[in-house]
């Protein structure tokens, strides 16, 4: 049974094998409409991927199915002790959600989302090893979700997060890495609240536990405790409807600093693989997302937004930034939705990750990486 589950999730993750994202390995927002509004969605659910942003949001979207495909293109560059490398990125990542209004006050649904980061330079970096440098972290979540409307306009939601993770490290012999790939299963929970506080004004609150994965045996000699978990996170959102306009704001906290593999400093002091062993040196992120939606006509909506966050990699911890270049903590967004019929809608979104270059200082001096990425998402939604 375990092999069957691993195979299914691995197939879903193949297209996300080299995803680059805004907040660590996470996108600024999930769901095509949310993407067009800078990710601002905790209090503004719009489709059946709402569970990724706030499980309670599924209570407000009704019975529907949504699918999307995101194309990411750009170039990532690094310079490690004078060795320059680059990688041209072109990848496609799917998204899917389905929701069913089981009873007037109860919904049942599922959302599938992808996370990841990776690089393929096609050449060695002498400071890292003798083989061609290639890294790949893929994390996929399937989130069965239930909501309950306990008062009119007030919803509670619960998601069970079932995860698949794959990690490949290549060309890091100087750090003790074996050029190998391994996978693991994981699980966590997400809870949320969505409520109408006043006419047109909504509040959303959400919390996700860490998604704890099994040990990656092939990498237990270099990764603290052999595990890379998805961190706990919490968020709060507000949305306000006034005439044809909707304005939304989110704050999201991502707790990278509790996950030892990501948070431990490269100079932590412990032995590789130990709980106090070297890691990537990440710090927590505080993400602020702003979005505006305009109902131009009965058929057409237009939207825009921004996502602004601190960079999770301090300059003093940039030694390994070249193999995990999650370097775009700020992004600008545009989007639209066109209603083909009463049931079907087509949505598009564009995201530009504002260029950011990390330059190492102190023990990380001589390492830098950065790039420029464009994301284009097309989604189809069908309401029953």
Word description of this protein:
It is found in: Cell outer membrane. Residues 1-21 form the signal peptide. There is one protein chain. The chain is mainly beta. It has one domain: Beta Barrel (Porin). It is 7% helix and 52% strand. The protein has four helices and 15 strands. The longest helix has 12 residues, at 2-13. The model is unreliable at 1-19 (pLDDT under 50).
Look up the CATH topology: Porin
Low-confidence spans: pLDDT under 50, at least 5 residues? 1-19
Task: Please count the beta strands (DSSP E, at least 2 residues each).
Answer: 15
How far apart the termini lie comes to 34 Å
The H-level CATH homologous superfamily, spelled out, is Outer membrane protein transport protein (OMPP1/FadL/TodX)
- Count of spatially separate domains: 1
* Largest β sheet strand count, sense and barrel closure: 14 strands, antiparallel, barrel
Helix/strand structural class: mainly beta
Largest beta sheet: strand ordering: 1-2-3-4-5-6-7-9-10-11-12-13-14-15
What is the N-to-C succession of helices and strands? HHHEEEEEEEEEEHEEEEE
Overall body shape: globular
What proportion of the residues is helical, as a percent range?
under 10%
Note the beta-strand portion.
over 45%
CATH architectural group: Beta Barrel
Count every helix, treating DSSP H or I runs of 4 or more residues as helices: 4
